[in-house]
Amino acid sequence: MIVGIPKEVKNNEFRVSTTPAGVHALAANHTVLVEKGAGVGSAITDEEYVKAGARIIDSADDLWAQADMIIKVKEPIASEYHRMRKGQILFTYLHLAASRECTEALIKSGTTAIAYETVEAPGNKNALPLLAPMSEVAGRMSIQVGAAALQRPNGGRGVLLGGVPGVQPGKVVILGGGSVGVSAAAMAIGLRADVTLLDINLKRLVEIDEMFHGQVKTIASSAYAIEQYCTQADLVIGGVLIPGAAAPKLVTDKIVSQMKPGSVLVDVAIDQGGCFEGSKPTTHADPTFKVHESLYYCVANMPGAVPATSTAALSNATLKYSLALANKGWEEALADDPGFERGLNVHDGKVTYAAVATAHGL
Prior knowledge:
Elements: E1 2-5, H1 20-27, E2 31-35, H2 46-52, E3 55-57, H3 60-66, E4 69-71, E5 89-92, H4 100-109, E6 112-115, H5 132-149, E7 171-175, H6 179-190, E8 194-199, H7 202-211, E9 217-220, H8 223-230, E10 235-238, H9 253-257, E11 264-267, E12 288-291, E13 294-297, H10 307-328, H11 330-335, H12 338-341, E14 344-347, E15 350-351, H13 354-360
Parallel strand pairs: 1-2, 1-4, 2-3, 4-5, 5-6, 7-8, 7-10, 8-9, 10-11, 11-13
Antiparallel strand pairs: 6-14, 12-13, 14-15
Helix pairs in contact: 1-2, 5-6
């Protein structure tokens, strides 16, 4: 099989889908094409890819035209739609429930599109092995970017999350106890913030309480509790996920209108439409905007800002699946692994993932 690794073109996206180690594994039995400069943002040179067994291609159009399978990081954007074609495999993050435009482009192209974020671990539909590493990165980053946004010159309240002796720490409220929420809690605790985490799963709250030895306050989530805790927060992290589906809108405009002036909301669920009513996708070039007197951070590719870390984490997770697709073809690879089969979102002009179809009435 001819495998193509293109350069990402989304605004301020510096990741690349595959490291030289991944290329080396694929190149043992397949032809691997890497677009010129694809790894530069992640501190990977073309020479490293060549040494690993890849061939460098100057043009994105040529790479897409030659490849049987494209392995990317982010969903295709409008400038890439014309490159997709019937019979080609696309393996990447798609987040289609949040983008009817991309969904329709994939349907029109006839591409076989497999989404990282809906692949399930064998025998555990609640474990998403290809989403988890980026969720961990984004969860950790959410506290970093939230702490920076809270600084007065950046538009925030002027609160130091950890406080100092004699001064109370900042209040962090985290919605969701999955990979994002737990990673955010770990960072916030490390900064000595006052941390509260809300989730609807009581068993998960018990696990989190034990995990953090009681340092994180755990609250059963409800509309009442969300309003109660968010209105007292300095920083709110939205990390709620329904696999493949649009995120639920948990924090309403009314709640935000009651929050402290200069408080910050970081919507890590923005890839799936966001879990705050006022959320809209932003970029690393212009990451924040105001709603009432609060500051929203809604960057849709947060891990793209730390590509040296996130590229390696992503490639580590996806490689065995990429090898299965290349070695067996998509039909056999998915048939052999029911969890992997859940990654199929669009094939031959049809949506094949129920939550995406529901989101767009298809």
